[in-house]
Protein 1
Amino acid sequence: MAIIPFHPLQIIAGLIASWIVFVISRWIYRLSPLHPLAKFPTPSRWACISEWYHFYWNAIRDGQLVIKCEEWHKELGPIIRIGPNELHINDPSFYTTIYCNNYKFPVNTPNYDWQGPVDMNMGNPSVTAHRARRGLVSPFLSKASIQKLDKNIMKHVNNFVEIISPTPKIFNKDKTIDDCERLKTEVVINPGDGVNVTRLLRRLTGDVISEYGYSESFELLSSDRNIWFIQPIADSLEVLNYLQFAWPVTYAMSAIPNFLLKTVVPREFRGFAELEWTLGEQIDGFLQDPHKAKAKTTHKTIFETLVEGDSAIKLSKRALVGDSMVLIGAGTETTATTVAEAMYRACIYPELQTRLHEELVKVFPSKTDEITLAKAEKIQYIIAFLKETLRIASPIPGRIARQTPVEGVMCQGKFLPGRTVVSMSAHLMHMNADIYPDPHKFDPERWMNSDPASLQEKYFVPFSKGSRGCIGMNLAWAEMITAMAATFRRYRLSLHPDNQRTEEWRDRIARFVIGDFLATAEEYDS
Ligand code: HEM
């Protein structure tokens, strides 16, 4: 007596047949007037079911979706369908409605799924929980709090500037570069000959955020401590696009014991998992003995506030790890990438570098003058140089996705149906020739005496905007301004003959640049 009335082959054939029926019925549905997008005046819906899918997946595989979108927009106008229920918009006038509408457009999109089992507030679908958790951190990152941090930031910036020197001397804690073998081999090409600027900048931003947020600096610029996740975070960016759609991989990664990670998992995939383990251990240490950790610092840290919460919020360990991961991840890579891009441009446009130096000399006449954030941030040309870098080389150029409200919404005379994923990109906004004439030209002058009410200011969105925009913007600006001021007051930078960095980049949501930036510094006489 057969237990199953069908032959296994019949079952397989049945499954395949139902899959085909399912796929065909989806196509028919998408083309029918019943589909929520049917009324939507976008390009050919035939394209959506045939060519788009092909392009869509290829683009994700290549990690160049925004760059593909740039081509498609030229042909098809400002709204293109990149998936059955997903629109990409490249009309700046939509920006305020989508991103600055006080949580009206939620983040319930697959684009935040890469985070796996940890619980990051970024991408938290609950408005109340997001607001409360963000509220714990934001006072630490206000402009006033950052201004008080000037000396702490400068301590690390001065280490950075000393290592760049053709004749590096003593830096933090009486060490010399020769005392730090690992630092020397990883970032110094040949003593006195040149440095790996990209790697050094990652160490700088890592030192700043770890000290401010977690009481103890990683001391990546002043010790031989091996914080191995800083480089893997950068490597992981290469696959960030894949992780969005392959979140089970992130779960699997979290389950692999720490000691196995480094041996069995390719470096691109393990950055976030390594960060998760390290911060998890740090959090366990704090929870077991909070007094010991507190004794290391004179100020209250972000970490301490997250752990202790306030009377209304108690974060789970998953949430503590998640929020710490975002602070460290977002706090190191984005800022380091931006300063590297700015310094790279100073090397390839030497006349602009000269101008930068001359403006600095006006405020800091001697090279031994103490650089301070308060004085440096008043130098208009530095701000213009950095703004132009953030415009032309946004560290988060990829799509930032939101979902339309359930009932749908009218925007700029168009109806966006409910629960549709809508996204815009800082890179495409910044390449809009109507707002930024000759957009591919690196031209800091366009920001000199720029009217705060102008369109170029309104649509300058490297940090995104609104309730979910960047919380670390003030810290990022302070680091970028002081690093640029201290470096270009003292040195003339030029590309090292072995430099691998070009202007090529890939859209991995974050900006993924190819090749390390190697430079040589020549010290000014006075
Ligand atoms: C040039 C440097 C930076 C750029 C361009 C940048 C850009 C961004 C952008 C575009 C977002 C929004 C992402 C989204 O909506 O999905 C964001 C969020 C965030 N950034 Fe930054 N960021 C920078 C530096 C920093 C720094 C230094 C920190 C840490 C202190 C930081 C911490 C965060 C956090 C925690 C969020 C999530 C905010 C939330 O969901 O409430 N960022 N950043």
Protein 2
Amino acid sequence: MIRAGIVGGTGYTGVELLRILALHPEVEVAVVTSRADAGVRVDAVYPSLRGHIDAVFTAPEVDTLAACDVVFFATPNGTAMLMAEQLLARGVKVIDLSADFRLQDAKEWSQWYGMEHACPDLIAEAVYGLPEINRERIKSARLIACPGCYPTSVQLGFLPLLEKGLIDCDHLIADVKSGVSGAGRKAELAALMSECGESFKAYSVSGHRHLPEIRQGLALATGKPVGLTFVPHLTPMIRGIHATLYARLESNTEDLQALYEQKYKDEIFVDVLPNGAHADTRSVRGSNRCQIAIHRPQGGQTVVILSVIDNLVKGASGQAVQNMNLMFGLAEDVGLSAVALYP
Ligand SMILES: NC(=O)C1=CN([C@@H]2O[C@H](COP(=O)(O)OP(=O)(O)OC[C@H]3O[C@@H](n4cnc5c(N)ncnc54)[C@H](OP(=O)(O)O)[C@@H]3O)[C@@H](O)[C@H]2O)C=CC1
Ligand SMILES: CC(=O)N[C@@H](CCC(=O)OP(=O)(O)O)C(=O)O
């Protein structure tokens, strides 16, 4: 059995990890941390886990976590980087759901995240945990930087077009909507039902911290810098990300539906919908799937890609477990076969 630790077990991605790992046949959840709830049983905070997780929240301490084979950090940015080095030195694999190791340039990271990086030397070793592009490197990694939720939906949507060089890379547009759980469980005015219910708004239009992460991934796919306008929106739903992606085609020869189907034909967690379909977040809620639909309105030069995920599953905890499966030589979908909840 793989002994797993979760730092930040009371947050939304933490409890989603617990939900997934509770039914994972190869994992025993050995340590779950929370500073605020240290000493409290996990199933007292989350009764849904009664009979599934027999653990008590503890304070996050390296000595306790070092008894694990793998530690997930489901913590705010700036936390994993303080403990990762010590855990790796003690032979523990680290899977970080936060942004601490996502950007390859420590200076750029500091600018977007507003703090100095505590261990810039580890950044080069971290493998960006998007299995659809980095599967082989993930298998032998010690440290995984799980992609952000918006970046997962946008990169999976744009990749086939970029890899084939079919679009104008200077003017990409990602118009993306997120459910409120994307903001985490902490109390926040903007996430109150009376603030975001019955309303819909864009935010961080002048620059969101996922912009450099998405640009970095797309530039790697195409081999040159990309020009991207990324506008996130907050929608009054709990889970889900819906990305509407726009690009200008530079070639008319390719059958785009066939291109996407071919690119993702062996990917368990990327589902290309039939021609003309409209992807919806409800159809991936609770599942580790990304569903993608391709459109070319009026047969013109603009291609519109719809890409949907559950931000807490393929956008965070499901993808983290997908990475863990690869790192430990398991089948990629162990523990991740849940079908979306409907309605
Ligand atoms: N929500 C989402 O959809 C997604 C989130 N992410 C990323 O995953 C990470 C977790 O997000 P989310 O679950 O939403 O966050 P939450 O705010 O819901 O939970 C944060 C958790 O971290 C713990 N924590 C907070 N500060 C510290 C600290 N300094 N040291 C140790 N533990 C700490 C909290 O418990 P306590 O304070 O009691 O210790 C809590 O359990 C973030 O980096 C987020 O950006 C990534 C993709 C999607
Ligand atoms: C709706 C909402 O607030 N979403 C969050 C992003 C999601 C997140 O947790 O960020 P990471 O993926 O980088 O970890 C935000 O815009 O700050």
